[in-house]
Design goal:
alpha+beta, 9-stranded antiparallel sheet, two-stranded parallel ribbon
Amino acid sequence: FLLVALVGAVSAAPQVLDSVTDFFKSFGGENEKAGEVNGDYEQVPYKTISKEKIEGLSYEIREYPSVKWACTELTYEMKDNGEEDNSVGGGGWEMVRSMMKMMSSSGWKKRPSSTMFMKLFRYISGVNEERQEIAMTVPVLTEMTPNKNMMTSNMCFYLDSAAQANPPTPEDKTVVVETNKPFTVAVYEFGGYASEDSVDEAKMFAKKLGDRVNTVDTDYYYSAGYSSPMKFWNRKNEVMFVLKQ
């Protein structure tokens, strides 16, 4: 239905475009108040240590406590041809065309991030030994470890407060329940649709840190996603480097 509506809009009068754009805004979350995180999803707790700014770039130092996550890991070849880019940019007709292309593509199902996400989503949806459902939380946190042209990703869903004490046992052997040690990170927030691996954002953040980059571990990083794929406006993503001890 959405695809048909967009096709009609592209060939209709300009005023129809405005109506379609308003329609997407209605479920895309553009009117969310500042500070709200993608509806009512529970967010992993953290403590903000400080807010920093360097060369016009603002970032935070945060401390995350020890909590339980459901995680799955995958190693795959990184692409360098733009195929993984989900960006939806521009205004007016260009934005509508970008939305059409994204929603009509079946390639997203084969992306490593989609494969990992669906494994974790099935787990919290009750595909576990106890047939227990767990509420979706934010962010979807992925530890990214690049090695030449390969990437090892460990994607995790934070288990909500109701499941922290006694999480259900995964049926899928590639899904594991992990408890992290407390860690402190430098966090840069950005909008739009992140690339598959957030590689460009991580490289940019490391470059902007300048001499301060020596205080963080750049051998790996975390990519955090807060927004649904169907939210087109005011999206929230983060890239994080762990501070060295």
